[in-house]
Amino acid sequence: MNFFLVFQNKSYHKEKSGGYLWAPQKNEKGQTFHHWTDMKKVKKGDIIFNSYDTEMLSVLVAKEDCLERERPSSLDDLKLWHKDGWMILVEYIDLVRPINYKDYMEDILKLQGEKYAPFNKIGRGNTGYLFRVSLELAEYLFQILEDTNGITKTSLVLANKQIDIEIIEDLEKELKSTISLEQTEKELIVKSRIGQTLFKKALLKQGNKCRLCGVTDERFLIASHIKKWSQSSNDERLDVNNGLLLCPNHDSLFDKGYISFDGDGTILVSESIDMSTKVFLNINGTMNIDMNERQQYYMEWHRVNIYKPR
Ligand SMILES: [Zn+2]
């Protein structure tokens, strides 16, 4: 996995809304520069820190290897460059608390390496687009991201839905090292919350409503794993089919095993819940959900291991 830093000033909002990074192959004089041609080095799963007006506002994960693509029409009014260019499709992960590079510049300059580095000797961003980030600098920036935003490298990998074996192996290693380091419970909770947020984001793309009732306010929707996170393999943890979007009420019932679903998606309700509780908790025997084959597989696990019929 490689790391980069992109200076996006003028193009940030347009590139973000389009979900990409774009750089020209040449300028009007036919010249080319490493901060453009380095786009070709970006591979699927690489991580790119952005800079907008001296602040990191987003962290980007490459969804594909770099592509040869003409300038998107939304960048036309910038009229700066040749049409032929390089494009990277990326997932933008926005920071709740932007990071001002200036606050960390002394350390950044020590860690950024000599060649093709993002900042000059006095700590100003170099003129150009994409710069290389040394492993040491990447580790340092991840530390800042974790301290300020609760974002870890693992959570960024989770954000990228198209995960290949190599990345999963990295993830496994990181999960193991987390355990051996005996990090505090608090840190682990932060990590799982971030994972939850990104998993939820993926689920919301499939439908933004509790699967059992009309709650649509995203703030109250919970992305539950059908097969418990702690019991799932890394693949299963990232599989959206292993997710169920529910309101707090229905999530609590499902999570504690008082409701589940049979093979054709009809709700199963624990006999231990009396009629009036059912009414107040908004559950009735006619409720059902659509499930594909993968979802049915996870649901069977839930029925066998979590559901309390009585
Ligand atoms: Zn609900």
Describe the structure.
The protein is α+β, with helices and mostly antiparallel strands. The protein contains eleven helices and eleven strands. A hairpin with a 5-residue loop joins strand 10 and strand 11. About 5% of the residues have low confidence. The protein binds zinc ion. The site of zinc ion has 8 residues, from helix 9. Zinc ion binds next to helix 9.
| Number of separate domains | 2
Distance between the termini: 50 Å
- What is the gyration radius calculated from CA atoms? 23 Å
The CATH architecture designation of the largest domain is Roll
Q: How does the overall form come out from the CA principal axes?
A: elongated
How confident is the prediction overall: mean pLDDT?
Answer: 86
Count of DSSP strands = 11
Q: Note the run of SSEs as H and E.
A: EHEHEEEEHEHHHHEHEHEEHH
CATH superfamily heading of the largest domain: ph1033 like domains
CATH domain fold name of the largest domain? ph1033 like fold
Decide which structural class fits the backbone.
alpha+beta
Major beta sheet, specifics? 7 strands, mixed
Percentage of helical residues? 25-40%
CATH class of the largest domain: Alpha Beta
GO molecular function: endonuclease activity
Domain HNH nuclease: 210-262
Organism: Cytobacillus pseudoceanisediminis
Keywords: Endonuclease, Hydrolase, Nuclease
Summarize the structure.
Keywords: Endonuclease, Hydrolase, Nuclease. By secondary structure, the protein is an alpha+beta fold.
